Amino acid sequence: MTAVGRRRALVRAAFGTAVGAPLGGALTGLLVLAGCTVTTTPGGVPIDTRHSSRGQDSRVLFLVIHYTVADLPLAIKVLTEREVSAHYLLSDEAPPRIYRLVPEERRAWHSGLSAWKGHRLLNASSIGIEIVHPGFRLDADGERIHLPFPQAQIEALVPLVRDIVARHGIRPERILGHGEVSPQHKQDPGPTFPWRLFSELGITPPWPDAARVAAQRQRFDALPTGVPDIPWFQEQLAQHGYAVERTGRFDAQMRNVMINFQMRYRPERHDGAPDAESAAILWVLNNPAAASPGRQPLALPPAFPAATGGPAAATSAAQP
Ligand SMILES: [Zn+2]
Predict the structure, then answer these.
(1) Are residues 196 and 215 in the same domain?
(2) Is 104 annotated in the active site?
């Protein structure tokens, strides 16, 4: 008897029946008996899956949400014929339809250069959802008017997100917008995406408590410059998860991060200026555990050094 024949005999002895017909591909045999499955390699070696390790999880750690800008026909064309792709495309049809373009176990190419909390190139570790949405239009003065998401689209999105998150065990804080993980290149899903609703539904982390934000803002208002300094912002943004360089200056890369931060947490004004309200929201996000705001020690950041250009300079530099 050959080695392969001996192994097959062992499998037969163990499971009481013959290895089944070849499946093709890497695993050529299949045997199903009493709920257990044995496959074999092309060389006939059995692969026994009766024992399962406790130490395992999904390779999917993140869920990244996008909008297409393109309409549905163009989005399908681009996402199927070019190099960019996404696992799911949520249409703006009535009622909305969800197109699954890439199986979840495969990598879709939706996030490109991306990072969050030290994780890099998130295509490998994420599910990507594209929402058919125009983003914004320009008014007569060339100002961007960000358009809302139709309720039917959000109602279709929520159960899809819940299902993906539950199956892969994705942590709430790892459900992110494309602009958050690629702030130097992207701003989708933009300031009208209902992140607050996602918090209220328990899908993403709790929304920053308004009373705690107000209390922290008062503390910042009391600083000589009325706002923390730029190194504080960069440190806190990085602590939250954004890929921001600690340059110590309010520069273009920091502004891009601030814009995306504000689009999510303070969408009414997302000019990228590091103001006291943004600072207070950021601080509350990074210090979520306070059971009682009154007893929580609030660490005051160092005052912004006025001589090197304070928040006013930063604000003016932030204007488009
Ligand atoms: Zn995107």
Answers:
(1) no
(2) no
